[in-house]
Write a structure and sequence with these properties.
single chain; about 290 residues; alpha+beta; Ribosomal Protein S5, domain 2; 4-stranded mixed beta sheet; two-stranded antiparallel ribbon; 7 helices; about 15% strand; elongated
Length: about 290
């Protein structure tokens, strides 16, 4: 499900600054996690991943963590003196080789990016781990509230479609009874026409009943109604039901397909086609549910 959560927490008394955490997700069948952490926090990436995996089962989840510190806490810049000496040495060699005059100026060093590097703040490690986890926890509280709101809307929509399917199942059950009698009567009449008066009534009745039974979908409709009841029960259970609903929907789809395949009644087939449409809409929604 889609969701968004954010939090900003202070780094603490020793490190004047703050930590910002942003969590957002979009719908996806499986869990796909993207992390963006400050380089100081890379050592805790595995812990952050587990934190998310324990709380999210599906979706593309993106987590952005940024660390903002006051100027007194910012890393200081160091110069790689050995590298600078190597450059100066090479320039002196070049100067002698080309026999040019003048002095070697420090301005020559300004364009060398590898010469400068920030001095890492060693106090970050360990002390800010709890700050990171607290920020994640606060952001996920808001994130989960947003997902709960969307989940409630999804559940309402799915319940309405289950209502529609139960209504269609009732229509199919009523039509199946009438269709069975129509089929039996139609087969009896057709057999009498083909036999042209040479009729074994018991044989005609037996064959007509057999053919009508082959097209009977009563058992499929009973199972369909049972599966719909199971879907309602799953919706009432809460989290962690997406895959189970998806599995149960496959059984619903199978029963509806069988009704459509066995029936020779136009109205019964139309009802089955309508039911297929409702099932497909539910399946689309279920991809967003954990």
């Amino acid at each position: 499900m889609t969701g968004f959560g954010a939090a900003t927490v202070p780094l603490g008394a020793r490190s004047r600054g703050s930590l910002s955490v942003e969590v957002k997700s979009v719908n996806q069948r499986f869990l796909d996690l993207k992390l963006s952490l400050p380089k100081e926090y890379v050592v805790w990436e595995g812990e952050v991943r587990k934190f998310v995996q324990d709380r999210v089962g599906r979706g593309r989840v993106e987590i952005y963590v940024s660390r903002s510190v006051t100027p007194s806490e910012r890393p200081r810049v160091e110069i790689d003196e050995e590298l600078a000496q190597a450059y100066v040495l090479q320039w002196r060699k070049l100067k002698r080789k080309l026999r040019v005059g003048g002095e070697i100026d420090l301005s020559l060093l300004k364009g060398i990016p590898d010469l400068y590097r920030p001095r890492e703040n060693s106090t970050v490690t360990g002390r800010e781990r709890s700050v990171l986890l607290r920020g994640l926890s606060t952001a996920f509280t808001e994130f989960n509230r947003a997902r709960a709101r969307e989940g409630a809307h999804l559940a309402d929509d799915i319940r309405r479609r289950i209502d529609a399917l139960e209504s269609l199942a009732g229509g199919m059950a009523a039509r199946a009874t009438a269709s069975r009698e129509d089929t039996r009567r139609r087969i009896e009449e057709r057999m009498r026409e083909l036999l042209e008066g040479k009729v074994d009534e018991s044989r005609v009745v037996q064959e007509a009943a057999f053919q009508a039974e082959r097209g009977d979908v009563t058992e499929e409709i009973v199972r369909l109604r049972s599966h719909l009841g199971g879907l309602r029960d799953l919706l009432d259970r809460g989290d962690g039901i997406g895959k189970r609903i998806d599995f149960l929907l496959q059984e619903v789809q199978r029963e509806v397909n069988t009704v459509a395949a066995k029936s020779s009644d136009l109205r019964l087939t139309q009802l089955a086609v309508e039911a297929k449409g409702e099932v497909e809409k539910i399946r689309e929604q279920v991809q967003n549910i954990e």
